[in-house]
Each structure stands twice: as structure tokens, then as C-alpha cells.
Amino acid sequence: MKYIILLGAFQALVVFSIFVINHKKTTADKILSWFLMCVFIHLGSAFLLHVLFPNAEIHKQFYTFISLIYAPLFWTYAAQLSGRYQHIKKKFRFLFLPALMAAVVYFSIAGYVIAHDGATPPVIILYNKTVGYASLISSIVYGILLLVESPHIPFFWQSERKLIRFMGIVSLIMSLFSAGLMINNMLPYSSRLILDSHLWGRIVTYICLLSVCLAIGRVKVLSLIYTDTQVPILETAREVLATVIDEPVPFTEMEEVETPEAAMPEPPSQHRKLLLSPDLQSAIARDIKRWMEEKELYKDPELTLDKLAATMETSRHHLSETLNQYLGQSFYQFINEYRIREVVRLIDEHRENKVTPNILSLAFEAGFHSKSSFNQYFKKVTGSTPSAYLKSTNTVVRFTNISINNA
How many domains are contained in the chain? Predict the structure, then answer.
């Protein structure tokens, strides 16, 4: 038992050290860091209790309040990635009120036990039942919410989406096992299974926490490989991990993707009758630029020509003619150039703050939802790969396509 606890605590500490060494500052990383720290404190304190007081009964009868933190942290992580709840983001702190109230009672009981030479107060029975049922309900509710939310995570976060689904499944497994133990204890003695409910409940909990820590470590390593980030403790394992885990393609390699014909600009035709005069095309081009720069519409990953036309309340055909004939670009070439400029700006901003950015995160923030198209357009627009630009000391980019500045 204590070796399972020690292994889980050690694994949580190792994965947490990767977050610390890599100096990641994203909100999602901070949430996972808090989870790993909670697991380490939870399992570390349990291990110390087993070592220092191997025959004591208190650690078998005293539930920890930390179990009420895990599920809300999972959900906060999923909500951060999906981006669907930014308007109520500050209210997420209320999800941790049950854990805070349980913590107050927990430390009060702990103080009583220490002051009375190990004697437990009568309130500990009510505390254990309340925390047990609250953890059960929390695991069921948040487990279902995680599985429902996972499809809304952008495909850009493929590994993170799998992690969230795994978290949801683990939460449901823990809750179903706990419910089974509770039901077994309610049965007549002659009908119930003879087993130590506290022992088996803790074994399953510790194994689940260990599994989640391993899954988080996998996702973090994938992120480091994708962005070609140099971390000393991963250098010897990088080549092995790259072939074993999902075979990720680093940003340093330019993916050869055929550009759809629909994405190519329509060549000007001498026989094609233009609907707009050059002056009107110029006016529409300036209007498009204004919408891009003031409203930042390019950050919408679902932006299409029809959607842009509806937003600007203008004709789709007029927009298409202006882009293809006046600016000499297709709609997606035009939009993706703005997105690349935004990624470059964010990279420069992180470099000035001496923070190593997650390129995947920046690309998603700028409006991309495909790694291959991001790679393709970054190379085409800037003349270098994302990781090469990140490592360079050059902060001045000579964009290959400058037509949007000429409108």
C-alpha cells in the first residue's frame, strides 16, 4: 500500500518538475501544476502517516479534504481549453468552496486529535460521511461534464482533449467504485462482500491519481516535442518518445500539404467583366483592413467568406472580387497572413518577457485550427519555420506577402 502511495507522490513531483523547469506561464499549465501539487501533498502526507504511525487507525478513519479539489480542477482545465466560459471565468473559484469548508473542519479535527493524544472527536463521523458523499457526487457530476465538454475542445488540442476524456473516465470509475463500496456496506452482513472498504477505496483512488499524473506527463512531453523545446531531463528520451507517443511532427519540419484549389487566388482574366471600379475596390479593401485590425475577426477559427460578408453587411461577390482582383490573394491567404502576423507579435512579446511560449497555443489564439496549415503559412509568410524564428534573435520579419499593407 505505502509503495503505491510513494510511487504516486514521486510521479506527481517528477511531472511537476517538468512544468517548473520549462517555465511555462499558460493558465492551463498552471491549473495542471496545482493539480500535481495537490496530488503530491495528498499522497506525500499519506505516506508519512503510514511510515510514522503504521499501526494507527486515525489515517484510516480520517478523510482528506483534498479529494474535493481534484474534480473542480479537472473541469477548470477543460473550460480553459474550450474557451466557452470566459465570461464567467472569475466565478470558477466558487467551485472550490466545498473543499475550503472541508479544509477548515479537517484542520480543526486534526488540532483536536493532536491536543487530546490521538483521541478523535465525535464530529469526525459526520465529517467523513459528508466528505465521502460530496466526493462521490462531485466525481460523478464533473466526470460527466468532462466527457460532455471534451468534444468542444478544438482539434488543435488533440492530446489535451484525450487527457480530458481520460480524466472524465477516471472520475466516473472512482465514483462508481466508491458507490459500490457504500452499497456493499449497507447490505446485511450475510449478503455483503467481506473486504476492508477503506483500504480498497484508497488503493483505487491512489492508482487513479497515479494514472492521471502519468497522463499529464505524457501530454506535457508531447507539448515539448511539438514546440521543439529543449529541457535537460528530456534530451536523452526525446527520440524514443517521438517514435512511441503518437509520432508527433515537430514544427521544425515543414509539412507538405497540397493547397486546395479553392484557397488559391483567382488569376485576373482579361475576358472577365469586373463588377466594381478600382476606386470602389480600394474602398472595400480599406474597409476589410479596418475590420481585421480593429475587430480582429481573423482570430475566429470558423471565419469564412460568407461569414465575413454577413458581418460587414456587404456582398460576398464584392469581397471575393476585391480580394482576388485588387489584393491578389484568396480569402484564406489574406486571413492567414493576419494570423501569422499575430503569432509573430505574440512570440516577440513572450521573448521580451523572457518566457518560452507554447507555439501551438499561440497559433490557436491567433485563429488557426490546423497544425499543417499553420506550418505552411508561417513558412510562406515569414520565410522561416516557427521554431527557427523562436530560436533566432531577429525580431524584424520581412513578410513575403505585403499586399494587405498596400490596400
Answer: 2
Range of the domain at 65: 2-244
For residue 332, the domain's CATH number is: 1.10.10.60
DSSP label at residue 89: G
Q: Which of 65-69, 257-261, 314-318, 328-332 has the lowest mean pLDDT?
A: 257-261
Q: How far apart are CA 251 and CA 374, in angstroms?
A: 9
The contacts of residue 340 (CB under 8 Å, 6+ apart) are 366, 377, 378, 381, 382, 399
Cell numbers placing 203: 488503493
Is residue 267 within 8 Å of 383, Cβ to Cβ?
A: no
- Is residue 248 predicted with pLDDT exceeding 60? no
Residues 236 and 266 in one domain: no
pTM of the model: 0.57
- At 399, the pLDDT band (50, 70, 90 cuts) reads low
Taking a C-beta distance cutoff of 8 angstroms, is the pair 49, 56 a contact? Answer: yes
CATH number of the CATH domain containing 116:
1.20.1070
H/E element holding 171? helix 158-186
Residue 253 belongs to a domain:
no
φ, ψ of residue 154 to 5 degrees: the values are -55, 145
User: Does 225 lie in the same domain as 328?
Assistant: no
Query: Could you give the CA distance from residue 163 to residue 140 in angstroms, rounded to a whole number?
Result: 17
